[in-house]
Amino acid sequence: MPPFPEEPQIHESAQGPRATPASSRVTPTPRPVPGPRSAVPPRPGPPRPGPPRPAPPAQRAAGAKPGPASTPDSPAGSAGGRGAPQIQLVPAPAGGALDAADEAVDLLLDSGRAPAEVLVLTTGDPHPWTAHERSFGEDAYWRQQDAADDVFYADGASAGQAKPRPVVVVAANGGDDTVKSVLPTALTRAQALLIVCGDPQQINSVLGAGV
User: Fold this and answer.
1) Angle, CA 75 vertex, CA 69 and CA 81 arms, to 5°
2) Burial of 115: CB neighbours in 10 Å, binned 0-12, 13-18, 19+
3) CB atoms within 10 A of CB 47
4) Which of 6, 67, 138, 154 has its CA 20 to 30 A from that of 19?
5) Model-level pTM?
6) What is the DSSP code string of 117-151?
């Protein structure tokens, strides 16, 4: 029988590229997963100013930061009688009073005040929240106040119907005669703190004699 041919020897260098161990392979980094989105407002339309609020914050004078522990910065100062609310003045032009009031509300909420503790009154144009809620009808609008689960906004014409709350913020954004009627009303509605955003001279001329 013819001898079997010898099997060819395969040298290591001819065995082709070695497989790369799995532990040394580079694994593509997965794309980051976006975080949860912010909560959607419970009702359509303009959100309640704040956090985040639609109006840009107004420039306030130094030391005018409102809050339960702040010191009043106007001659109207603190109320004199026992049980009367503390009064704070945030200087602002009529055109910027609404923005200043929005910022004051933001600061109050950031400091720990519950939304249901805050009432906002305007002397000129109604706050956008007021206009939006009234578009659903007067009954639905006033039910928002009775529900007492959020900041409530009222204009000068309906200030007398607003119920007392621990903190009242007034935006003196126009209407000289309305300012004279809204500020005394706001003083009776504020149980602990009254913040007035507007012209200091005008505000002191109204509240100075009554405080």
Assistant:
1) 70
2) middle
3) 17
4) 6
5) 0.63
6) GEEEEESSSPPHHHHHHHTT-HHHHHHHHHHTSS-
